[in-house]
Amino acid sequence: MSEQSAPSPTPAVELSSDPADTLPQEIASALKRDSAGLVAAIIQQHDTHEVLMLGWMDDEALRRTMTTGRVTFYSRSRQEYWRKGDTSGHVQFVKSVALDCDGDALLVRVDQIGAACHTGTRTCFDGRDLSVVTGHRD
Length: 138
Hints:
There is one protein chain. This protein has helices at residues 25-28, 59-68, and strands at residues 39-45, 51-57, 72-75, 80-83, 92-99, 105-112. The strands form two sheets. A four-stranded mixed sheet has the order 2-1-6-5, with helices on one face. The termini are far apart. By secondary structure, the chain is mainly beta.
């Protein structure tokens, strides 16, 4: 994947200046963002453990995800926030969020309603297997 620079996100709704409406400092300081200020968010079905998709979050998208029960991403192409399912109906209900050991990726476990992929498939990886040489333990 190529790194894309993005200007500061433009929220879809006006943000409050209330400190309670910001990502807690201990979480914000643990994040290692890319040059655009984003962190990769791996989305996984909570009960089957299917990896559904990968999206991008900044502090505000993560705060919204952690406080609303619905997943919010930052769209690098549209340069705006989007809550999964608002237009498609394919909602992601948050079950848990974890930060990886390096702070540069999030694992968001969800209850996915409908397709996770914008192409209409259950996951963004369905039917996209690559031919590989498999390894084996000795």
